[in-house]
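Fig. S4 source data, part A: sequence.
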Amino acid sequence: MKSCLPAATIGIFLCNCVGNSLRCTSCNTDGTKCSGWFRTCGQNFDTCAVILIEDTYEGNRQWRGVKTCANSRVCQMPLQYMNMGRGRYERTSIICCRGNACRNAVPRFQPGFIKPNGRQCPACLASTRTECGSAKVSCSGDELYCIEAQQYIWQSNSKFLDL
């Protein structure tokens, strides 16, 4: 899968650690809301994060809700957006909170997307590399770099390679 990626995109590294008195809800589920049990956060985590991931695939919009311990550096991250071409994108919004403020915290996305910035990246969303043609995806806003990644997707007992 090749796509446009914002320059500000940084990997979010969240893990299950044990150690201090901060406690955050821990859950990861399909849909816009999740609820789970409280986890005591490790010493490197100083806030709770509520994360909403929106993904489109074959015209279907899907959401994933995540609540977890986090480092407050993720609180300053802008909306994460990855345009994979052919109408497929993934975007992530994060809200940091503590205590009761996390209970009803819901990350939001801005409606619509930013105008194209003139850059283009190769676009391929296919089962095999040989299916990739010369398709391009138009980058927008602060999307300055192209990335290449691959993953295996399992659907109805079939395996697809997403390039």
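Fig. S4 source data, part B ends here. Residues 2-162 form one domain.
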